[in-house]
Design goal:
This protein has 15 helices and 10 strands. It is an alpha/beta fold. α13 packs across α15. The longest helix is centred in the C-terminal third of the chain and has 19 residues. The structure holds iron/sulfur cluster (2 copies). The site of one iron/sulfur cluster (SF4) has 13 residues, from α14 and α15.
């Protein structure tokens, strides 16, 4: 596979990377086998996060001995310097390395996140200190909010941006990615398969290959999934007329139901956690039933409070029928619990 330059970091990585969430529920042996198979298949970019359970530990174990041949990215959700410094130390130990190629401030999606990170005792101070000590090579960020992501890119403080990008969530290809490219930032595409909701990997990656400056990081959980994706990169072909029609049909169908988890509908006065509720399907696809239920139960319980006031409908830029969709997720969740509880 031809490598891609990750912007001004000057890191060269495989055109498709590895996203570290789906190995969370795997046992250590299976997770290590998946990560090693990615490496042996030519993938050189591995992205994880301190908050992804034991994903860092599994990746560190799997890649030990090949550290110089791979680029490792991780991230912290912490906003203070003290906590971020702790996370950097944990990540280095978990990943069994003395340097992290790319350290990202995770999910900068509100102005408040940015203010906290940039404060004198904020997370960026600790990350820069670690960079000065050689523990971190480059600093990036991830976000789910287009307008804020553009603002953060323009701050000039970060070398890479990580943002959701797939043929349903294609808005970043307009202004955001243009700004990032102008600033010579590396661009990492999260959710290339729509967080597990888009089942046609061939369409997803052929669409992404039209944007070769974006390095997607699909979550892969099995050898078969890895081989399927690698094949699409080893023998790329443009989208056919039929592929484009299929994409349009899926956009029309899913567009009415696809939650981008942007959070614009929040807050709900009744305390309904709308984006978390909408994320249940992805959790159920990616995680073990026990973990998926534990992580979404509290959010699903808030659906009971919905009075169908309609305020969220006015705020959702994608015109989703939120009250109907959250009830649908509640029903799905209850059926899922019944199926997976002994
Ligand atoms: S329901 Fe709409 S506004 Fe709320 S998170 Fe989803 S896409 Fe965004
Ligand atoms: S319709 Fe329901 S979820 Fe939406 S704002 Fe009103 S109470 Fe909250």
């Amino acid at each position: 596979m031809k490598s891609v330059r990750l912007g001004k970091t000057e890191l060269n990585v495989s055109p498709v990377g590895f996203g570290g969430i789906p190995i969370i529920p795997l046992d250590v042996e299976s997770a290590v086998a998946v990560v090693r198979h990615c490496f042996e298949s030519g993938i050189t970019f591995f992205d994880t996060a301190n908050m992804y359970g034991n994903s860092e530990k599994k990746i560190g174990h799997a890649l030990e001995g090949n550290r110089q041949k791979v680029v490792i990215a991780t991230k912290t959700l912490e906003r203070t310097a003290e906590k971020a410094a702790q996370h950097i130390a944990y990540s280095l130990a978990n990943l069994r390395t003395d340097y992290i190629d790319l350290y990202q401030l995770h999910s900068i999606s509100k102005n408040d996140d940015l203010d906290k990170i940039l404060a004198s005792d904020g997370a960026l101070t600790a990350v820069k200190q670690a960079q000065a000590e050689g523990k971190i090579r480059h600093i990036g960020f991830s976000s789910h909010d287009l307008a804020l992501a553009i603002k953060v890119c323009r701050s000039g403080l970060f070398s890479t941006i990580q943002f959701p990008f797939n043929f349903i969530e294609k808005d970043p290809a307009d202004e955001l990615f243009s700004v990032a490219q102008e600033l010579d930032m590396g661009i990492i595409g999260m959710k290339p398969l729509g967080g597990g909701l888009l089942e046609r990997a061939d369409l997803c990656f052929r669409f992404l290959q039209r944007h070769p400056y974006v390095v997607p990081i699909p979550g892969m959980q099995s050898i078969e999934e890895i081989d399927e994706i690698i094949k699409l990169y080893d023998s790329p072909r443009p989208l056919s007329e039929q592929d484009n029609k299929d994409i349009e049909n899926m956009r029309a169908e899913l567009g009415k139901r696809f939650c981008h988890r942007c959070g614009y509908c929040m807050p709900c006065e009744q305390g309904v956690k709308i984006p978390e509720v909408m994320g249940f399907r992805t959790m159920a696809r990616r995680l073990s039933p026990q973990i998926a239920i534990a992580l979404t139960k509290a959010a699903i319980e808030t659906v009971e409070g919905c009075t169908e006031c309609g305020e969220c409908l006015e705020k959702c830029p994608y015109n989703l029928e939120i009250p109907e969709l959250i009830r649908e997720h509640q029903t799905l969740f209850n059926a899922y619990v019944a199926k997976h509880t002994p």
